[in-house]
Amino acid sequence: MTRRDLEIDRITTLLSQCLGRIDEQAFRLQQLGEGEEDFDAADVLDEETALLQSLVSSALMAPEPGDGCHLNAVVEQTVRNAVTGVGIPVVVRQNLADDLPRVAVGQGEVGHAVQRALMLVLSAAEAGDELAVTTRLDQDRALLEIEGPLRDEEHLDHRRTTLGEFIAELGGKCHVAGDGHQNCLIAIELPPALVTGS
Which of 15, 21, 128, 193 is geometrically suited to a Cys-Cys bond with 68, CB 3.0 to 4.6 A? Predict the structure, then answer.
């Protein structure tokens, strides 16, 4: 099985999981009586629908097998799109290291991982909030750190778990922590691409 086949299988699995969560939340909403509302189910449904759209885009843009991708390029584009999508002014501070190795993950999957992390801190963003995005080299691995506001704490455990599972599927690690002052720090570690001889 080629690397591209493995990537497509992984995306297919993630799509199935996402569709399952959408179906579960839709069922919860269908069981409501007249005049009843379930804001938690509606919020999760909206989030999973957005993630589904992102996964479909990732599948359609899945690159041919290669030597991974450049993390900084994906981060810059994804942050720009996410902040534009929020629709309110957000201060973005980026500090991207210029000595990062390529990561052993496809561009679409890295973009999806970064988008999910950004959704965690931007879903309840307010005008003037600050988003800090940093990439750096940690031993031989590329590390992405995202810090921003955290107001939607009731969904933190669910989002932290699903984000961690997704990053683990990519062969990386993810840590999400709050600082006790309504801030959230997300650290994502991705494996380096194997260097091949020319």
Answer: 193
